[in-house]
Protein: succinate-semialdehyde dehydrogenase (NADP(+))
Amino acid sequence: MTDTQARANATASTSTPATSSSAPVPPGATNPVAFAPAAARTAADVVTPEVVAQLVRGVVGSGRTANHTPFTGERLAELPESTPEDVAEAFARARAAQPAWAATPVRRRAAVLLRFHDLLLERQAEVLDLIQLETGKARLHAHEEVQAVTLAARHYGVRAAAYLGPKRRGGAVPALTKVTELRQPRGVVGQISPWNYPLELSVGDALPAFAAGNAVVMKPDTETALTALWARDLLVEAGLPAEVFQVVLGDGPVVGPEVVRHADYVSFTGSTRTGREVAKGAAARLVGVSLELGGKNAMLVLRDADVEKAAAGAVRACFSSAGQLCISIERLYVHESVADAFLERFVARTKAMRLGTALAYGADMGSLVGERQLETVVRHVEEAVAKGAEVLAGGVARPDVGPLFYEPTILDGVREPMAVCGEETFGPVVSVYRFTDEDEVVERANATPYGLNASVWTKDGRRGLAVASRLRAGTVNINEGYGAAYGSVQAPMGGMKDSGLGRRHGSEGILKYTEAQTVAHQRLMPLAPSFGMDDEKYAAFMSRSLRLMKALRLR
Ligand code: NAD
Structure:
């Protein structure tokens, strides 16, 4: 019997009281146990032939593919696969439907988002089951997607008209030039999304594109297509014309470039490597692109941090969705003076987590999504240990819970050139580093090609803001890991450096789906010599006017 199996056998039958990342830690927890409530729904109860038949009507595809659940490896559904001709057909349909949608008043378009918001909250149980089955995540982490999508639906539902409405701007010549800035939809947006947040990063990110009057052709990851298709149906039920939302499915390297080839704008979320390919395709066609890419996010526990709260926050920040979250924390810098107290609590909380596959609340962490993810996690941990890192918690797979489960893992003594030090693991693995000097830790946190998210823990808000402003990351959370900034949908979210281009949320998250159009109406006098002025007099008149405009501080 291997160590892993021995530990699995010893812990699988143990039961512990319910825990959550903010609850007190049960005494004596040694390793994560399996959470397995007696009566829970199964994949067969949820993904019935009727459900699949209903959902696949949304796909333009003539081939055959399938998806699977990471919980057991079983096939979930047979799905259509799209050929390049199918992708062209999907764009043709979307293009035909888009002008009527763009002509619909913005308030009516936005009202669809508000109805979608209500329907999603009402029918959340259905999609929580699908998200869990397709991604293998714990139900609480699936619910984070419902929260994120409803926040975005409400925000753009309420604010779209203000973001998109005509704006008066100062003209070249005050009073004589009347300027209106308009926002025109791009046309048909091609959206390519990953598997890790299949509701939020598919339909959630498409909501502002629709509010701005675009049609969308979406390519979700095939393994999580049912979630995206379910949300498409719900959006149609909320009033979106079905033809403006087309879905294509298939292999990323085959179908993805076809989407880029036809789109008027590309919205991509996924790895930095694929993002570069997508950017090249968009550049060749001179269409705009937004790229939400990878990260190697740092959390800084300053010497005045509340270590109890920081330890609970670190569990959420590192292990939500089994760390398969672009904004989750993989590097943890702790001030030397609080490192022992923090680590004692963080390790205890991590060991008390419950792993599970049930379609019910109660597990603290779910599965990895695929073999490739598990291989990366195992490779990163094994290589680090072989080169001298110490495992403070976890460090083993848990096939007793499910074929792709891996324990939440804390590593100490990690240093270059261990892969886990600089590469994105995208799994439940965090490395702990101690520091003594704040300037030095800011430098170390910034020493990565990525710049997506960061987290700072301190009791002093001003100090937190000062440190945050020196971090090269698109979002920084103070006394939280990632949710505070991500959920604040009025403000932009996205990556610096290799973590991306462009932003979701806020004004940038909707205006990127538009083309700015400036309409200038010249009145009374042309921008040319007039009223008998010769060229020289006109030039002198304009020079005087320019000086006057600056003196009056006209904008
Ligand atoms: P991925 O890049 O492999 O795939 C993303 C999507 O692109 C999938 O739909 C895939 O089928 C498609 N694709 C693959 N090859 C393509 C190609 N040549 N052209 C066009 N499309 C192609 O990424 P993944 O493994 O699915 O997702 C994990 C990565 O996504 C991680 O790096 C993670 O950090 C990142 N991510 C970033 C954010 C963010 O908001 N910044 C959010 C979630 C995930």
